[in-house]
Structures are given as structure tokens and as C-alpha cells.
User: Fold this.
Amino acid sequence: MQAFEEQNTTAKTAAQTLETVTDADIVKLKRSDFAIASDYLAAAFSQDPLMAHFLPENEGAKQKTLKQLSQALLSYAQIYNHIYTTADYPKGAAIWLPPEASQVTLPQLWNVATSGLITVPFYMRWHRIADFISFISTEMQLHQRFASEPHWYLAMLGVSPDCQGQGIGGKLIQPVLQAADRTNISCYLETSTAAAVRFYQRHGFEIVDRGVFANRDYWAMKRHPQG
Assistant:
């Protein structure tokens, strides 16, 4: 218990250090920009080969699902206030959940319900809802296995299709990576494209697990404090 309490104190300190974003190009996303950010996240989800397995075949239903998923994720994460975007105009978004978000509390469960996350499975292709829930369960088990200690979790990173290849994605994740290094806390994420794996490896993440679901690869990655 003592070790956990010490880690938990460190985790709170990490979140407090991010009250002011130091990178002049990156700021915290304002709620008034959630609509445009959700468009970028939806576009990112649409390129995910594993997510494509679960999405409806009808294009209209697919876009509705992507929008619901993106908006629910933004709504859930806003309480923690660690959603980052570009300063001049939103060109992408990085959704981070701080160490305290991994603690299961009644307010957190209420947030899951009110954000709309709990309804997301029912927007998926009907005969694959069970598969979707099974995959989410697998991800949660991996998350607990490889990041049981307090850590930062990168829930989603999306950049406007018109602005990709400009280094924006790397800038969006820097505020938390820098804070994690200063406070000696690890970071964790999951991804399902080889290109994303290479991107995250350039930023210090290492593969901790690789699996296959529905004939599609996915990776769990972790970044230990550096510097």
C-alpha cells in the first residue's frame, strides 16, 4: 500500500505540472472546438483496419458511428482536461488520460455513462457487436497487464488529413511525454497499424505485446520515462 500511495502522489504531481502547456505551438482543446476535433478523430478511426471490421457497411451508418465514437471519447476525456491541439487553428487532437483516470470510482463510472461511451457498441455492425465487446475486453486486460502502475494513457491521436506529414502528431503528444519524463511516469497506448507503430517508436515507445484479432494485427506499446 505504501508503494502505491507514493506512486499515486507522483501521478497527481504529473497532472498538476500540465496546468500550463509549455510548447507555444500546442494548447489544450477548447470545448467550442470539439466539433472540428471530432471530425479529425473520426477520420483517424476510419483509417483503422481493425475498427473497419466492426463498423457498419452502409456509408451513412459508418459516418454516424465514427462521429458518435469521437464525440463520446472527447466528452469522456474533457473532465481530465488533457486534450491537446494546435494553437493557431485545430489541425488535430491528442486525447490523454492522466494517471488518476485509471482509478475506478463512482464519478468515473457516471462519466462513462453520460459521455455516451457506453452506447458505442450498439452503433457497430450488429452481428459484430459481440466481437467488438470481446476486443475491448482484450485491450483492457492487456492494459492492466502491462500498465498496472499509475501512467498516462494515449486514448486517441488524430490529425487532419490535409495536415498530415507536417510533424503535427509528434507535437501534439509532446506536452505529456515531457511531463512524464519530468515526473518519472510511464505512458501506454494501443494501435493497429504498422505505420503508427513506427511513429510511436520514434517517440520512445516500445512494443510490449502484439496480437491478431479478426485477422488484423494490433499492438500494445509502452514508453518508460526518459532523460
Notes: Confidence is low (pLDDT under 50) at residues 1-14.
